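Re: that chain you flagged

S.,

Sorry for the slow reply, it's been a week of failed gels. I finally had a moment to sit down with the sequence you sent. For the record, here it is as I used it:
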Amino acid sequence: MILQDILRPCRGDFHLTIYRGGREISRIDDHNLVVDAGRIRLAELAAGKSSACITKIGVGSGSTAEAADDTELEGQQLFPLTSASVDGRDARFDFLIDNSQANGLKIHEFGLFCADGAMFSHRVRTGLIEKEDDIQIKGYWILHF
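Prediction finished late last night. Pasting the structure tokens below so you have them in one place:
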């Protein structure tokens, strides 16, 4: 008898809603890349060698496509997640970038970051969010294991 692992590798879904003056102006549902540092962090967590779980959402202005060896965002700004939860093999991370945060940044990219600063996941958007004080970004990231 040959055993075969039929589970897919770790992957993620990225969802955000953009509000201007409290009114929804855009909704984005997309995928993301779990970077090498994130996969290393998973191995360390499994072996009890790290306690650095995912705690932050990051935004940046870089427009270069994601790569497995990415470690940071261009012009990176990090903010605490609003919540994290687990449902079966899925981990969900909710975030809010409020009216007073990241203003003046031309946001192209998002990332999930561990408590020790290691990047876990990365998503570069084709569109641009010109973040000003009338813009609020709410979203969530789901990692499927």
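What I noticed first: The chain has a mean pLDDT of 91.

Talk soon,
D.
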